[in-house]
Design brief:
Chain lengths: 440, 229
Amino acid sequence: MARRQRGSSAPRKNGRVGYGVPVLLAVGLHVLVVVISVVSLPQRQPEPETSSIVQATLVSTETTTDQAQRAEEARARAAARQAEEEARQAEEARQAEEEARQEEEARQAEAEEQARQAEQEQAEREEEARRLQEARQEAEAEAQRRAEEAERQAQLREEQEAERQRQQEAAEEAERQRQLEAQQRAEEEARRQREAEAEAQRQREAEAEAQRQREAEAEAQRQREAEAEAQRQREAEAEAQRQREAEAEAQRQREAEAEAQRQREAEAEAQRQREAEAEAQRQREAEAEAQRQREAEEQRRREEEAQRQREEEARRAAEAASQGLDRAIEGESDSVANAQQGQEAANSFINLVRRAVEQAWVIPPGASNGLSATVQVRLGPSGELFGATITQSSGDSSFDRSAIQAVEAAAPFNELRQLPPMAQRDFRQFNLRFTPGDVR
Amino acid sequence: MNDSMSIPHLIMSASTVVQLVMLILVIGSILSWVVIFQRTFVLRRARRAHQSFEERFWSGVDLNELYRETPSEQETLGAEHVFRAGFREFNRLMAKTKSADAILDGVQRSMRVAWSREEERLTLHLVFLATVASASPYIGLFGTVWGIMGSFQSLSMAQQATLATVAPWIAEALIATAMGLFAAIPAVIFYNRLSSESDRMLGKYEDFAEEFHSILHRNLQGRSEAGAA
């Protein structure tokens, strides 16, 4: 120690080395190591965290769904109009037995044609206003109350819901009719005849002013006398008609709902409608069930044929996979058939697609959690992929490419054929959002 | 995640014993690096000094002149120190005795003392480097074991043991071992390097001492033969 001090006090070329510079160097070295570890670690750490679960979420099916529904409605409306025109040409000469009821049906049928409907509605409003005045003058308390109610409801319905409601219902009814047509041709014929009669009646009324006047008067008379009488008549008819056909019943019920449902008991109407819907639903379910069984059998047969050509182990593995797929499809189609709402079917199909895409997705290394890309997918009628395009880029081109590759690898989505025909059209086009989540 | 697993955060959140161990290791590491730098400088300087002295010694200069040029004994280093000690003893004994053996014995003894002092100077603090090299892994291991003990104690109180609850504890415990290794590895490397270098220097000093001894022996032989003749 003493030597070192002396050495430093008398520095020479061969003098002893002090400790100042080494201490400085050593401390500086450690500080450097600490700084490097602190600075470089945050940059290195995001890399191991990219091992993450795939989260592909489907967004905004509503827009495409809505378009498809509108197109569907328009198609159904056109078909209904064509069928009615056919019926009218064929059955123009026939007369109606019930004037009032036919007048109601005629008005309902007119509602499906927009131009004529507006005219007819105007006439009806005038008639009902007149009827209301007459009822008031007669000062029958119950009849007056019902007339007021009828007028209010008619005005409300005709002015507010008017076209949209009636067209939608008409389209749905027409759709149901077409389905029933395949199974119940005879009833359908009868219904068409009646509709044609209604059309004939309307045409005659349009042609003959006196005729329409008389009808209006008959209607006013009927309204004035008692709604209960008409209801009794309609109920009697409904009994006979329900036995004949479910469709005409639904038709009449909807008509009654449009015109006289509020005047009658709402429970009976709702009950009848529910029965009609249940009937239609049951038929659709049966249809879907048969379709599904046929599909499953065909699929199984195809699988077996393909499997026979493969090797034993590969065959077994593929069989297991296809069985799992079949089971998934069966459960899927079951749930679709049971779904009362199209939304449920939509969700299950979305889940299938999402699962398939998730499994096929290979996230590029280095993709951070914040990335998100939206891919628009267009499918063919049997589920094959028509196109996948990036609608909202994540900014990372490799990430976008991986998303599109995932969709391409997951296609075709054969489950689309298991869906009911209406839902199929809705899912020809949808969006998929790709966001890698992390494990926690 | 990013924040809680960074090394400074882990060090700050460690238990007291582990922090103490880390402190000891940091101090040991700093001191060992001080020694490393200081010894490196000392040895480099000694090598240069030896080189320049040997050039001067073998340049045919008169030994008395060389002795007079060199500074006092306390200031000299290395082979110069050995030369000064031996030549001074030689001059003193020459005045007192005629016996060549006695003179050479005295010179050799004096040079051995000087060499021994040089050895002590060159290997100063190298033992500390060896201590750090061998002990700091164990110290770090102790800190790790202590930290993992603490982590398991706290784990026994947790409802469910997931990797996320254990990981920070183990990470901060392992930092102690890492720091022990961080201190030990340079210490081992530089201890080996510096000790071999100092051994080499000491070997050169010894060689020089032997050569100087042979020169003095030759001188005495020539003088005794001249005196006899």
